[in-house]
Amino acid sequence: MAQENCAQEAPQGRSAHRPTGFRRLTPGLLRVDRAAEHFGGLPEGVSLPGQLLAAFKEAAPQLGISPRLVHAVDWLFCFTQPQDWQKGSRPIVWPSARMQQEALGLSPTQAKAINRSLIELGVIAMQDSPNGKRYGRRDGHKRIIEAYGFDLAPLAARYGEFKRLAGEGRAERAAMGRLRRRATIAKKGIAQILETVAEYGFAGEEWITLGRDCAALGRALKAVERSDEMQVGVLSLERRQRVARERLEELLGSVESDPMGAENRLHYNNYKPTPNPKKDTVIAAKERSRGGEGGLPDPAPSEARRAPEKGMVHGIAPEELVRLAPKLKPYLRRASPTWPELIDAADWLRHDLGVSKSLWGEACLAMGRELAAVALAIVSTKDPAHFTASPGGYFHGMVTKARAGELNLDRTVWGLRRAAKPEGERRVRGQHDRASHEVWNS
Fold it and tell me: Does the pLDDT value for residue 303 go beyond 50?
């Protein structure tokens, strides 16, 4: 019976696919070999070989080439000489495997892996010798006459690509920088809105959701690396800021813009103004210097007055302000403080009253630091039931009045002074004030 042909019965001769130790021909290797074969010297616009290396390094992030591989190319580049990059030559270098491993701190396996990666990425080509070793010779003019090893010609062939990718990388980084700044501005704007909401006591799930969503968006944007993805997140943040601001404006429009209280209402006087206001100013200053009952005039933001350490400021001394507003005491080191110490104490007291740091800063700019401390001290003397929204909202109204030049605290200060005096003295003082008022208006 004739025996059928089959795989089991085939002759077991030498296999044609037995490993030879030669470098495997991959698509990447074939492509980079073709690029190296067309080397004709430095490309147009390049005068120094170092420009090729610089373009490669700048484009590496866009190509996804790791810093470790970039360092390996940089090391190989050091072995080339300027004449190697001229037309008719080839930039081939031949450091030994041991030298490469020791210089780059690699094991033999790691060195082979890096070399394969550089070939597949199209950065270097290999010129293999008949015996598989790397070596080369130069003539008396230092020109290469024979070389086997790493061929860096692909760097020249891909110079135009590297420059283009480097430009795209710069544009991408610039776009990311702009988007991150926009994100920061939007997040700060939302934080400012939420602070104002808290100051006015506006409660609602919408504000809790806004804060939670924006915090989550901020965390997510930190991990984004592409400008198109970043833009989506930034637009979402800006949209939330815009909607929240419109909503806040609606709520503030429905709230009385001026906090209740005599110190925040305009004062109307029934006497005729003097034709010489400078003279009145001098007289008033002299009366205050004699210990008279001076008021608290509105400070101009542009005034560059140097406040005394312990003297009278706006008609009130530091010890008296502490006596009238005892909630300042826990934040003072001594019973007889200076104005700078009082201002620091007011900055601490604002935490208890729910006044934000930004609002406190606005108050210092609008009123001056000393009068801002006086105003905050006044707020601390109010009963909680006095506020229509919150102490922070009340203080916000005082700042608004100060900006408009309409804040007058003298009545409130004198009211606190009267309230601090014994009952009998307050009654006599009240009769004296009424009598003076009748004489003044007669």
Answer: no
For residues 121-145, give the mean pLDDT. 90
Q: How confident is the model at residue 423 (pLDDT cuts 50, 70, 90)?
A: low
Contact 309, 338 (CB under 8 A): yes
Question: What's the confidence (pLDDT) of residue 151?
Answer: 93
Kindly report the CATH number that applies to the domain delimited by 27-157. Answer: 1.10.10
Distance between CA atoms of residues 41 and 163, nearest Å: 17
Could you tell me which of 406, 404, 358, 351 has the C-alpha nearest to residue 376? Answer: 351
Per-residue pLDDT at 172? 93
Which of the four pLDDT bands, split at 50, 70 and 90, describes residue 28?
low
Boundaries of every domain in the chain:
27-157, 173-253, 267-440
Q: How far is CA 79 from CA 89, 94, 104, 125, in A?
A: 15, 8, 14, 15
Closest CA to 92 of 140, 144, 41, 131: 144
Q: Where are the beta strands (DSSP E) in 62-158?
A: 92-93, 125-127, 135-138, 144-151
Phi, psi (rounded to 5 degrees) for 363? -65, -40
Q: What's the number of CA atoms in the CB half-sphere (13 Å) around residue 358?
A: 10
Q: Report residue 41 as tokens.
A: 């010297």
Structure tokens, 408: 């007058």
> Do residues 125 and 182 touch, judged by C-beta distance below 8 A?
no
- The reported pTM is 0.48
**Alpha carbons 309 and 84: distance in angstroms, whole number:** 77
